[in-house]
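Sequence design from tokenized structure. All designs in this work follow the same two-part layout: the structure record, then the generated sequence. An example of the structure record is given first.
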């Protein structure tokens, strides 16, 4: 499995201007090469005589990327965008003087007019993945610019362990008030104060005229932390996890349950914890004792009108989720997945 991450670059003013020139030149050459190749009946590498070493290499690279992107676009039926600058990731300990600097973990080498070295820093998310057994950092990356800042997109190759044996299952329900509720009695933190703080912060920033877009909201950070803690408890106790199938949940509602389920599925594949998915309909309206749907629910209170069973609504739903098991989903994943949604950064 290959997990993708975004690392922030720290170029000087001269290096940032050089990166901007190289990026503009590469995109311009890529667009010219794409138009010339698309106009040909039989595509071939366009002539790059007299354009210089970097221009010739960029033109040949544009041709290769165009052919690969065209082949992938035919399969997925999706348009492709011009690629970004290719770079090589070098460990800070391997770089000779005077390029070493304290506080930087990696150096990004962009081959343009000579070799351009730019320092970068790792974050907690990529460090957690690199700490897994057999995890290795890919040597190649892509440099791009976003909101006036430079980043590099790199990958970490992680071997998938074997699935561990299961002695018991944990049913997990994602609620609106509590982040998660398990059938063993565990309840996560209340998300309402977090949402209120986020709304107040955004309102204050709008009054000050500050426009900041969060790549990962505090609510998502809380759910990501609960997913890591849940996987840790399940791995230590030898238990499996039962969740609602995220593909069966509505997209315009219950986004937190879909986010949490996909997060747990990805983390479970990395540590070898068994995860099962259940059908989500009527998990909150069914009595976990007698199975009747003649029930009454008000906020956190659940009561069955048939057997007079009274319990917490989220705990009752977690018990139903534990009993509804449809299929095992901890299988090998292919392709590039990301533990940091919508980009990078530490996730709590």
């Amino acid at each position: 499995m290959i997990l993708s991450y975004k690392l922030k670059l720290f170029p000087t003013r001269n290096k940032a201007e050089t990166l901007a020139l190289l990026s503009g030149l590469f995109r311009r050459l890529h667009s010219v090469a794409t138009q010339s190749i698309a106009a040909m009946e039989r595509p071939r590498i366009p002539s790059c005589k007299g354009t210089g070493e970097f221009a010739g290499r960029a033109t040949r690279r544009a041709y290769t990327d165009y052919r690969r992107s065209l082949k992938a676009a035919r399969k997925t039926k999706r348009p492709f965008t011009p690629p970004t600058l290719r770079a090589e990731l070098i460990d800070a300990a391997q770089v000779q003087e005077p390029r070493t600097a304290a506080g930087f973990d990696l150096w990004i080498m962009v081959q343009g007019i000579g070799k351009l070295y730019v320092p970068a820093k790792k974050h907690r998310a990529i460090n957690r993945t690199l700490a897994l057994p057999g995890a290795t950092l890919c040597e190649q990356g892509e440099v791009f610019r976003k909101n006036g800042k430079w980043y590099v997109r790199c990958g970490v190759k992680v071997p998938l362990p074997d699935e561990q044996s299961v002695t018991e299952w944990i049913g997990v329900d994602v609620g609106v008030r509590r982040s998660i509720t398990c059938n063993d009695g565990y309840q996560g933190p209340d998300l309402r104060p977090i949402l209120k703080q986020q709304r107040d912060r955004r309102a204050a920033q709008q009054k000050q005229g500050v426009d900041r877009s969060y790549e990962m909201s505090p609510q998502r950070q809380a759910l990501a932390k609960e997913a890591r803690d849940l996987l840790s408890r399940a791995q230590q106790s030898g238990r499996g996890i039962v969740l609602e199938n995220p593909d069966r949940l509505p997209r315009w509602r219950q986004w937190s349950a879909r986010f949490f389920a996909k997060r747990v599925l990805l983390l479970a594949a990395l540590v070898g914890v068994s995860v099962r998915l259940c059908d989500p309909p009527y998990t909150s309206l069914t009595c976990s004792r007698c199975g009747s749907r003649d029930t009454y629910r008000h906020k956190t209170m659940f009561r069955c009108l048939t057997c007079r069973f009274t319990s917490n609504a989220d705990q009752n739903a977690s018990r139903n989720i534990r009993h509804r098991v449809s299929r095992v989903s901890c299988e090998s994943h292919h392709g590039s997945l990301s533990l940091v949604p919508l980009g990078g950064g530490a996730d709590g």
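The radius of gyration is 25 Å. We note this feature because it recurs in several other targets discussed in the main text.
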